[in-house]
Amino acid sequence: EVYFKNLSKQKQKEVMEKNGNNHKLRVCVATCNRADYSKLAPIMFGIKAEPQFFELDVVVLGSHLIDDYGNTYRMIEQDDFDIHTRLHTIVRGEDEAAMVESVGLALVKLPDVLNRLKPDIMIVHGDRFDALALATSAALMNIRILHIEGGEVSGTIDDSIRHAITKLAHYHVCCTRSAEQHLIAMCEDHDRILLAGCPSYDKLLSAKNKDYMSIIRMWLGEDVKTRDYIVALQHPVTTDIKHSIKMFELTLDALISFNKRTLVLFPNVDAGDKEMVRVMRKKGIEHHPNFRAVKHVPFDQFIQLVAHAGCMIGNSSCGVREVGAFGTPVINLGTRQTGRETGENVLHVRDADTQDKILHALQLQFGKQYPCSKIYGDGNAVPRILKFLKSIDLKEPLQKKFCFPPVKDNISQDIDHILETQSALAVDLGGTNLRVAIVSMKGEIVKKYTQLNPKTYEDRLELILKMCVEAASEAVNVNCRILGVGISTGGRVNPREGIVLHSTKLIQEWSSVDLRTPISDALHLPVWVDNDGNCAALAERKFGHGKGVENFVTLITGTGIGGGIVHQHELIHGSSFCAAELGHIVVSLDGPECLCGSQGCIEAYASGIALQREAKKLHDDDLLLVEGMSMKKEDIVSAAHLIQAAKLGNAKAESILRTAGTALGLGVVNILHTVNPSLVILSGVLANHYVNAVKDVINQQALSSVKTVDVVVSNLADPALLGAASLVLDYTTRRIY
């Protein structure tokens, strides 16, 4: 790490020497509307804070300067930025031709401004038609372009504009790993791509602590409560204006019927926006007691409004991107955001062609609270972007180079940029110890923390949060980007809600416990929770013998007996989340009593607790110790003593282990006859002692058609932590919508 830091400093020093020690990078930031300013403002503040490296010029154009859209240039002035130039570039009109004419007008006016400013680099955001004019002008005038949020996928003409700007831009700052991969597939140079996250997240992730009730009351009225109002923001779809107007009518009708206080924001400047405003006025939205219609809300206040809303509805990218940081429910209407990566808080209504569909979506989503999502950023985008800007060598050739296939590995930055490994926080909640680890995508445990598991619910949850916060902070120092938190715990778990329904007797006060919400709220990370047996199976599927195997079963042989079943590459949970309770398969009607209250379970014969019980009986009868063994009075008799005695020739100990192995083998035979896996993996501290006995029972008792099953011992050192990490890593790298 020290080597990387020194190398980075050396390169920055070399870049400064090449550019001239006294030369500051002259950066022009051009903003066109309220939405792009929310992304550009954090970068502008960062540039302004480092005058020894940068000179900032601000150009304002587009809808910022139109009264109908709130004259939003004023918020730039309120942020204490000097606006160098104001360009009126919007041609009034209600069709596609007006957008084309606006682009043409901007192209006519921009060359004079850029000739006067002579910036070293221009920062352009997003996918608006105004941004295309900016990028075209800068490219033709040999000005380097840094494009923010390239590589993303959405619906309508925005996709085409965004990708066109990508081809004009010299440098790229993207927000997600998928966007980075799209840029690479578009033949952009790896060394000129920075995966930084969305700049607006730098402000979003610290926003919830501010005083928000005064903001809510100012915009929605004194009697409004948190989570009891809706924010609506819908824009015209320029490739199908008539349908988008109809969809907006249906949305307003559904909101009127739903009868909740609603803040409606005016749409963007696009073909069809005037017609949408007319629809609002026709339905009396501006005078309806349940509605507040506004042209613009300052971004800081808008953050607070969506963070504490009961729901957001519409087709704005803000809904699928920024709102996920708060876990606020979102209803995404139509096709305008098709293809965007979204968190689980977003419900898509692709074909919003009836009022009932939209109303039903409101009933499903309103008032829910989802885990906070950090798909689009982790709050550290601006420092990465400033570091990236400082590394730009102005003496490098201006002409772009394209990297045609075959492309390089999916690493977007060279060694002098930030090298970060996608990782998970894994939590293993055992009967004795509580462990937290940073686990990389390759299954490497980068750092591990262990504490005794507290006896009470409050102390346990407090310790989990403390250890997770400590690990998340340390992740920055070891260059790991945490994608989420995975928790492995004993008992019956509802993984959909992140709730421990019933725990084992080994973990006290651990039933009906919501683990997801408090941890997600504290860390601003998505959280997954599952049973420890299921986690062991996931660990094998991702890192162990189960990799690439379609159907297999994992059996944990430790303090208790548990496991997980993978069928057709997917984990089976069952209708009441009770699948794969393999330790409680009954192999004898009159066997020993199990902790579950039944008799003759595998766990009553073959678990560490069962072996300890039998060892204690032998010890009490002075039948345990043989030559070569010794025990002190204070020593607690354990399963290890029984195994040692058997190895030294104690016939009774051998008989107990043989019975335990037979019971486990019979359970495996029942599993083979039920789900017919091609592989059985024995995991845990007792696996090596049982594997041969299990194979013998299969050969003696199983049907011939299943005798060919492979039975192996797990080679994973820490399946509980690796399985908890797999909950995160599998989900975040194969998200399908």
Number of domain modules:
4
Could you state the oligomeric state of the chains shown? single chain
CATH topology of the largest domain: Rossmann fold
The count of DSSP E runs of length 2 or more, i.e. the number of strands, is: 26
Structural class: alpha/beta
How would you describe the shape? elongated
Determine the N-to-C terminus distance.
38 Å
Q: What percent of residues adopt helix (DSSP H or I)?
A: 25-40%
Poorly predicted spans: 1-5, 407-419
- CATH homologous superfamily label of the largest domain: Glycogen Phosphorylase B
Keywords:
single chain, 737 residues, alpha/beta, Rossmann fold, Nucleotidyltransferase, domain 5, 4 domains, 7-stranded parallel β-sheet, 6-stranded parallel β-sheet, 24 helices, 26 strands, elongated, disordered N terminus, hydrolase activity, hydrolyzing O-glycosyl compounds, kinase, multifunctional enzyme, EC 2.7.1.60, Bifunctional UDP-N-acetylglucosamine 2-epimerase/N-acetylmannosamine kinase
Question: How would you characterize this protein structure?
Answer:
The protein is an alpha/beta fold and 737 residues long. It has four domains: 21-204 and 381-391, 3-Layer(aba) Sandwich (Rossmann fold), CATH 3.40.50; 207-365, 3-Layer(aba) Sandwich (Rossmann fold), CATH 3.40.50; 414-543, Nucleotidyltransferase, domain 5 (2-Layer Sandwich); 545-715, ATPase, nucleotide binding domain (Nucleotidyltransferase, domain 5). It is built from 24 helices and 26 strands. A seven-stranded parallel β-sheet has the order 3-2-1-4-5-6-7, with helices on both faces. A six-stranded parallel β-sheet has the order 10-9-8-11-12-13, with helices on one face. It is elongated and about 100 Å long. The two termini are 38 Å apart.
